[in-house]
Amino acid sequence: MFPEVLKRVxxxxxxxxxxxxxxxxxxxEIHAILQKDDMVHHTSDFSEKGFVFAPFAKQSPVILxxxxxxxxxxxxxxxxxxxxxxxxxxxVAQDKDYHLHLVAxxxxxxxxxxxxxxxxxxxxxxxCPSAPLEVFQRLLATYDTAFxxxxxxxxxxxWLGATPEILLRTSNNSLTTxxxxxxxxxxxxxxxxxxxxELEEQRLVTDYILRALEDxxxxxxxxEVESSQAGNLWHLxxxxxxxxxxxxxxxxxxxxxxxxxxxxPLQPAQRFIAENEQYDREYYTGFLGELNLRQEISRxxxxxxxxxxxxxxIKTATELFVNLRCMKLTDSKATVFIxxxxxxxxxxxxxxxxxxxxSNTILRVINP
Length: 368
Prior knowledge:
Elements: H1 2-14, E1 19-23, E2 29-34, E3 41-42, E4 50-54, E5 63-65, E6 69-74, H2 88-92, H3 96-111, E7 117-127, H4 132-142, E8 147-153, E9 157-163, E10 166-171, E11 174-185, H5 196-213, E12 217-222, E13 226-230, E14 233-244, H6 248-255, E15 263-264, H7 266-276, E16 287-300, E17 310-322, E18 326-330, E19 333-342, H8 348-363
Helix pairs in contact: 3-8
InterPro entries: ADC_synthase (IPR005801), Chorismate_C (IPR015890)
Pfam family, one: Chorismate_bind
Domain Chorismate-utilising enzyme C-terminal: 98-296, 316-358
C-alpha cells in the first residue's frame, strides 16, 4: 500500500539510511529501494545490480544503491498534493546579468568556430518549507509524464526531481535512447511552432548520438522528430533504437554527457562549462536509474494450450534517466538547477526566459 511504502521510506530517512523512491513516466506505481547500511557503494563497470546515481563529471564515481530491499505500491488517484505558485522572475532576478553575459560568451565561442553548441546552466537557492516526502508527492501529482524521484544518502545528500529525458533503456539485448532538445512553453490547445534554432539544436544532438553509437551497436534506427510535452514545456524528441552485445559500460560512457546537457565538440564544451559557469553541477545533468534489474514477465500461451495458460520470461533491464529539472535539498533550503542549449542563433534574453520557464517545473512544487 502507498502509505506503508512512504512510511518505510520515512523511517529510512529518520535512521539516516540510504534510499530512493521513484515513479517512472506514465506509470501508476511507486518503487522504493532501501539500503541496509550507510556504506557508499560505487559501480566499477556497470555489470552490478542496483540503482545508480551519477554526477555530471565523467571522472567522478557513480554511486550504487544495492537492491537490499525493494517495495512497490500503486499510487492512489486522490493524491491531495497540488502545485503552488512562485514568482520566478523576482526570485532569480539577481542572477540575470551574469547569465546573459555567460550566454553571450558562449555565442561568441560558437561564432569563432570553437564550439557548435554549449549547454549553460545556473543554480538558485530558495526556501523549502515542505518536508521532502511532501514535495515528492506533489511532483507525482503534477508531472505524470516525467521520471519523478527522491534520492538520499547521508554521506552524499538529498536530491529530488522530475526529468523528461531518457539516457537509455535496455531489455536483454535491445536498446532505446533519445535526443531531446528545444524548449517552448506549453499553451493549452496550441501545438508548438518550432524555429530554425530549435530544429538545428535537435539535429545536432541526434547526429552526435548516432555517431557515438555506430561502432558499438547494430541495427540502429531513428524515428521522426516529434513534439513531446513535459509538464509546462514542449521539447523536440527523436527516439533511437538498436541492438547491443555485452558492452553496456562502453555505451553509457559514449552517451554521457550528451550534447543535450553539455555541448559539442564534447571536450571543448566541457572545458568552457568548467571555466565559466562558476559552480559545481554535482549530480545535475548526470544520470540515475535502475541498473541490471532482473524481471519476471508473465505471458499468455496459445489459447489451444488450456493446461498451462501462461509462462514466465526472465529478462534483465536497465533504465537510466538524465537528471534534469532537479534540486538538492539541505535543511530548509532547496538549490534548484536550470540550463539551456546555446547555438549560433541563440538570443541571450530568450535563453534567460527559457531557464525561467524551466525553473517553474521544480519551483512550483516546493511551496504548498
